[in-house]
Amino acid sequence: MPTLTINGKQVTVPAGTPIIRAAAQVGVNIPHFCYHPTLSTPGNCRMCLVEASDARGLAASCYHKCTEGAVVNTETARVKAARQAVLEFILVNHPVDCPICDQAGECKLQDYYMTHDHKPSRVTTAKNSKSKAKPIGPHVVFDGERCILCTRCIRFCDEITGTSELTTEQRGDHTEITTFPGRELDNAYSMCVTDLCPVGALTTRDFRFKTRVWLLSSTDSLCTGCSRGCNIHMEHHEGEVKRYRPRLNPEVNEYWMCDEGRLSYQHHNLGRTTAIRLRDQREVQWPRAARQTAEALTAAVAKANGQVAMLTSPQLSCESLLAAREFASTVLGNATVYVGGNPSGGNDAFLITSDKNPNRAGVVQVFGPAILANTAYKLLEEMEQGRVQALYLMRGELPFDTAGRARFAAALSRVALVVYQGPHGLDLEERAHIFLPSATHAEQDGTYVNETGYAQAAYAAVPAMGQALADWDVLSRIARAAEMPLSFDSFDALHATLAATIAAE
Amino acid sequence: MSVTVRITQRPERTLRVQAYIPEVIRGLSVTTRQMLRNLFGGKDITTIQYPEVKRRYPERYRGLHRLMHRDDGQVRCVACMCCSTACPANCIHIVAAEHDDNGIEKYPATFVIDELRCIVCGFCVEACPCDAIRMDSGVHVQPFLDRDTAFFDKGELLSRGTASIATQGGTFKGSSHSHH
């Protein structure tokens, strides 16, 4: 455990810690391009040079290990001159096409140039020309001229995914990142290289030219693509979700997320059904919708002779599920609760899990483990045998293939009253008697429990689209209209009830 | 901190002021003198006979926007959104797209300025990194009889544009130095 002094501050770190990590512990940020805590350390960018008493010249703080009694200075004139020289060197061939570069605004080279160099170029010779706007995989586009050859992307593919698609070719200032012959960058995590890339050399094809990043607002949220629950920055502009970016959580997803999850932001914008429909009435406002739904449900439940069902979903947050639990026992008169959700899919040994729903563990927490026996398939059989008179559907994701969905849609016609609440109409909207639009997880707060049991919060990022409301709000309005109000009247009260319920059970 | 109090004397209402008539005559004489000067005075009149006579706008007068051309007549704008970011009235709406020509890469598929919202501040011109948008057309904003006509699209903005003296990419014509 060596103790050393960094910029006059003492710090004790485990043996083998590089100076850059020790410095971060005492709040000293050392600029760097090629260093990344999860990757190997080639020390090739030379941006992190510092003065260390135990080094011969300037030491690269990313691989220079802390030693006992070392005195490190990161802000001396010599260090500053070295940084400036490194930046000038990198910029010799950089095209400075920031106006058309998607990285502009979140570019390390831009930031460091402003803080550590800020001098006009002295270079009068022509710049090297390299590949421009070259797609190197289904999701990533490459610009060789912007590349500063830090090799983070190559090391990611070698060390994290183990797929080794990328390498360098040529030498000196002609060096260029490229895929191996006959290959493309198409692993399941390929878009992580665009987060790693400190400049605009690797950018995503999906986000290309969509929005300038400085216009984006960011909200802490979760990916709902599978039960891993990767932490994300949900980035949005003018009320529309524009992209997901992984958010560091060492316990869940570290710095990464899969491409499929990253692109799943689109479901917030596409295929939405955001207008209330009461049988054939449209352009209905919420007060009347709640009243008529409550009347229809009350009448149907009275006639159903106990044959009432509610389909919940592991797509819903714990709060929505708890509201559904109360709603099922009061308004729906002790309805049988079933669990829907997306069908299982492929998994891998890294992040992707086979359960394509974010909150199955939450369903178990809220309803108890026995609920999992009440599958959507069981509900389908009950419906086909005419043993369901009234059905309340929350979310339209079903664990069936196309044929199974068609069978389910057909079976809905045997139910006297179908109320469908969800953000997407899917193929079930026109089969339901009443459709009530609800918010996606970008539009409402919620807690999700991932596969390993971490309860994680996702916060509302954008206003709900059209007439959509938070799931608890829809249920609460109907319950109030049915004169059986739920035990909470705000999300905060519901959240507190959830915490108390989970603790008590 | 002490408060400074200054005592001022109101002008006294003299008999001449209170009598009213002499002051009215004094005021009317100013008006009459001005009227006679305007009728027979000649050159030193401040009023001009607009619209027959127009005042010359100063060189940096901010008139209607225009979009400048590349040498081949295409739009210079690369859809970097610096102008729409700088715009305090939020009146510039750009949709960027990928250009077929590999040398251009990014261009504005649509570029619409809402001239009703524009507050004529000129920030867009200052923000532009490639001399693509200018307000030096010398044409001042006309009144719009129809709201739709106040949205100037790319074609309309280009119709007032000309080729720029700057070279796309940041160098001035005739200069061999690259310039960032």
Write the layout of secondary structure elements.
The complex is a heterodimer of chains A (505) and B (180).
Chain A: E1 3-6, E2 9-12, H1 19-25, E3 49-52, E4 59-60, E5 71-73, H2 77-91, H3 108-117, E6 134-135, E7 140-142, H4 152-160, E8 166-169, E9 176-179, H5 192-196, E10 202-204, E11 217-222, E12 231-237, E13 240-246, H6 259-263, E14 277-278, H7 286-304, E15 308-312, H8 318-329, E16 336-339, H9 360-367, H10 376-384, E17 390-394, H11 402-411, E18 417-422, E19 434-437, E20 446-449, E21 455-458, H12 471-481, H13 491-504
Helix pairs in contact in A: 2-3, 7-12, 8-9, 8-12, 8-13
Chain B: H1 15-18, H2 21-40, E1 66-67, H3 82-86, E2 92-98, E3 106-114, H4 123-127, E4 133-134, E5 151-152, H5 154-159, E6 166-167, E7 171-172
Antiparallel strand pairs in B: 1-4, 2-3, 3-5, 6-7
Describe the structure.
The complex is a heterodimer of chains A (505) and B (180). Chain A is elongated. The relative contact order of chain A is 0.09. In chain A, helix 8 packs across helix 13 (491-504). Chain A has helices at 19-25, 77-91, 108-117, 152-160, 192-196, 259-263, 286-304, 318-329, 360-367, 376-384, 402-411, 471-481, 491-504; strands at residues 3-6, 9-12, 49-52, 59-60, 71-73, 134-135, 140-142, 166-169, 176-179, 202-204, 217-222, 231-237, 240-246, 277-278, 308-312, 336-339, 390-394, 417-422, 434-437, 446-449, 455-458. In chain A, a hairpin with a 2-residue loop joins strand 1 and strand 2 (9-12). Chain A is α/β, with parallel strands linked by helices and 505 residues long. Chain A is 27% helix and 17% strand. The two termini of chain A are 45 Å apart. Chain A folds into 3 domains: 3-88, Roll (Ubiquitin-like (UB roll)); 95-104 and 125-215, 2-Layer Sandwich (Alpha-Beta Plaits); 277-504, 3-Layer(aba) Sandwich (Rossmann fold), CATH 3.40.50. Chain A contains 13 helices and 21 strands. Chain B is an alpha+beta fold. Chain B has 5 helices and 7 strands; from the N terminus they run ααβαββαββαββ. Chain B has helices at residues 15-18, 21-40, 82-86, 123-127, 154-159; strands at 66-67, 92-98, 106-114, 133-134, 151-152, 166-167, 171-172. In chain B, the strands form 3 sheets. A 3-stranded antiparallel beta sheet of chain B has the order 2-3-5. Chain B has a two-stranded antiparallel ribbon with strand order 1-4. In chain B, strand 2 and strand 3 form a beta hairpin. The longest helix of chain B is centred in the N-terminal third of the chain and has 20 residues, at 21-40. Classes of the chains: A alpha/beta (505), B alpha+beta (180). At the A-B interface, loops of A face strand 2 of B.
